[in-house]
Amino acid sequence: MLNYIIKRLIQLIPVLIGVSIVVFLMIYLIPGDAAEIIGGPAATADEVANIRIKLGLDRPMHEQYLRYMSGVLKGDLGFSFQTGQPVSEAIKTRYVNTFKLAVFSAVVAAIIGVCAGIIAAVKQNSWFDYLCMSVATLGISAPTFWIGLMLIIVFCVKFKIFTISGFTGQIWTKEGLKGMVLPAVTLGFNSAAMIARMTRSSVLEIIHQDYIHTARAKGLSEKIVVLKHALKNSLIPIVTVIGVNFGSLLGGTVVVESVFAINGIGRLMVQAINARDFPMVQGAVLIVATTFVLVNLITDIIYAAIDPRISYK
């Protein structure tokens, strides 16, 4: 297992280099000049040229990339074109909020999705099954920003249960937890729907196996048959969906943080893209990509923990 983890960590290097190259190229293909945006509409051509020289934007593209990567290897993500603040510091303060929101959403989505999927599978073709799958279809097809706006209209404007911008990231306090609910539900709704559908199909596939009928014939209670025998052997695809969805949750914060005015890394990226703040965008994407790859690694390790047939050599 240790060798496998080391091997996967080494494989991270080319993946992250590939991500950095793609992001670097995409940013430079975006129309607009960062020096002109920083200088403002009143800046003269000489002032814009001086800004370009100061930021190193007059250098060839490959030279700019190599200089950026040499800094990354030393732990330096550069400085923001817009504020002059070190990128690592700006990301650190915002990333905490995004990570808390993504983890909270993932936990809520996993609990709701797995429970709903199990009940729908056990009560196949019942009214709960039809209702659950209908809501899951809505959750998968509905845009995240629309869900967020609908929740704001209903719970903030109509019933005044929550505040629109009450997110503090402090989930251990009543007010903090209250401010976390709507963003987490908005972010996790799509994920919960996918987990519910996957759980239902996985449990349905297992629940009709011969050994499940044998367990029931031995007189075991339905609760033990479902949770201990059916669910345990259905976990691999469910864990896969949860792990992949966590990466989607990190990416989805771009919309949710903009809707609920949360100072997270997603909102930071939107602001940085609008300002052509290249170091900030590159640093934020690199951190999100690293988190996503590490979550996939943890998912693979969980495979071995829940299924003894899987071994990593």
TrEMBL record:
Q: Which residues form the ABC transmembrane type-1 domain?
A: 95-303
Q: Would you identify the family this protein belongs to, as annotated?
A: Belongs to the binding-protein-dependent transport system permease family.
> What membrane topology term does the record carry?
Multi-pass membrane protein
Q: Write down the species.
A: Oxobacter pfennigii
Q: Which UniProt keywords apply?
A: Cell membrane, Membrane, Transmembrane, Transmembrane helix, Transport
Highest taxon above the source species: Bacteria
Q: What's the name of the protein?
A: Glutathione transport system permease protein GsiC
The listed locations are: Cell membrane
Q: For this UniProt entry, what's an example GO CC term?
A: plasma membrane
TM helices/strands, residue ranges: 12-30, 101-122, 128-157, 235-262, 283-306
Biological process terms from the Gene Ontology for this record are: transmembrane transport
PANTHER family in UniProt: DIPEPTIDE TRANSPORT SYSTEM PERMEASE PROTEIN DPPB-RELATED
